[in-house]
Design goal:
The protein has two helices and six strands, in the order E-H-E-E-E-H-E-E. The chain is an alpha+beta fold. The strands form three sheets. It has a two-stranded parallel ribbon. The chain has a two-stranded antiparallel ribbon with strand order 3-4. A two-stranded antiparallel sheet has the order 5-6. The protein starts with 8 loop residues before the first strand and ends with a strand.
């Protein structure tokens, strides 16, 4: 019989929020596992409503800190793709998980 694995943090869901928490926990040195029934970003984050767009409003003005938030999200997605070998988002000026 094998020993049970121990983690500091167990995250349910590999959407944008779950992956963000996992990345922060990993940088803090916590032994972390992410559990999801599908590939990263394939659930609610993968729906059209999961779209990340730097511009909002009728005249498409950039939201406050939009570029900073988009850059942080892209870095997180790149980290996940490097770790998993899975491509799960597209960036054509608007990020679509």
């Amino acid at each position: 019989m094998s020993k049970a694995k121990r983690y500091d943090l167990i995250i349910l869901g590999a959407g944008i929020a779950g992956l963000s928490v996992a990345a922060a926990a990993r940088k803090a040195g916590l032994k972390t596992v992410v559990i999801d029934r599908a590939k990263p970003g394939s659930g609610a984050s993968g729906a059209w409503m999961g779209l990340l767009n730097p511009a909002t409003g009728r005249r498409a003005k950039k939201a406050w800190q939009a570029e900073t938030a988009l850059q942080a999200t892209l870095e997180l997605f790149e980290e996940v793709q490097n770790d998993t070998g899975e491509t799960f988002y597209w960036n054509n000026g608007v990020i679509r998980p």
